[in-house]
């Protein structure tokens, strides 16, 4: 990404030695949808934008048209074009594609941002914060399992082929897939050596693609890696999460490996998280969650080093959690991760340095005041980063505007006093019911048109799931019923 603002006048020099440009936008499943165009074409549309079929918000992740009416791109519209406007400051070059220039886009219709466009949604919330002398900062930790990519019928002699897992799964059960390594070796110093070229290729290429990794290690579960992306402005961080997934999958192709960002790829193993660290600063960079000195009158010692604004923000997030779950856990599979005893939160909870809580508080003396932040631990690796970051900021800022108090004691107090925390929705169906309710906080803090749209897309997902015959059903009932 450019460190200085790029204008259309800069483009001829910037692209002087190129003949083509790649562009992409982010759909409602967090998938990059784009194309390659000639440099001349790109220079002609760089300011005004170009036509991009609205079908990208009219079909699911498998390009199947929604079975429930999605009002952003209804069938009776004929899937007319949206305007895709390049974000010139998203410029970077793709190292694994011969350094082709790359730009992200925003989607516009009738001179207004498309409400389902997560990049525009997040920008709108950031503009609101900026008007109040605030800026959001974020870091995201992505865990993902890595599989040896099989040939269509099986595995090559060295255990890897560079093609298509989908073709393999047409003829084999998912359990036949082989993780890169067996066993669970968190923070292993030796496990990365088995696939060191792949392991370090991702790290090094991330730096070249402006998706810099701060920490990179093995995690719990067979063949699991974790990438902690370097903290930056929230809008940049959301983009970098989407682009890191693109990078990992692309590098994987070259090494005969398929990275998997499902929240729960394997039964009986820990899930793959997408923890979000978030803070607010003023426009000069001062952390607004930090308190100058500990508060002896704090309602709980866990909040002693949180500013009043930080407490209000936390209260807003906690109050909204049950109503915004689909934006943290957007798939059927997401909720397979959110079970007890697998390092994933199941209730409305918070606590200082508590990794079992939904929101982990990180303040002095654990960190410097400037690093005071919240870690929202609900999202899995399947998160839509723009939606998730948008709703965290919107929920937290609602708490600031309403000066909400934290109503839930921290986890240690709950345990000491025998308080049972309220559970979060544990299925997509239940989460969607809360999200779509007329009195939902989601409807208060997000565009109602978006809430209607996203509800329709998830209802479609539920319908497709209900109609599916799973391996579990077939094995259980084939001979017994």
Automatic annotation (TrEMBL):
Biological processes per GO annotation: biogenic amine metabolic process; glutamine biosynthetic process
Residue ranges of domain GS catalytic in the record: 118-481
InterPro entries (UniProt xref): Gln_synt_N_sf, Gln_synth/guanido_kin_cat_dom, Gln_synth_cat_dom
Keyword Transferase on entry: no
UniProt KW keywords: ATP-binding, Ligase, Nucleotide-binding
Highest taxon above the source species: Eukaryota
GO molecular function annotations of the record: ATP binding; glutamine synthetase activity
Family: Belongs to the glutamine synthetase family.
Protein name, as recorded: Glutamine synthetase
Organism this protein belongs to: Aspergillus brasiliensis (strain CBS 101740 / IMI 381727 / IBT 21946)
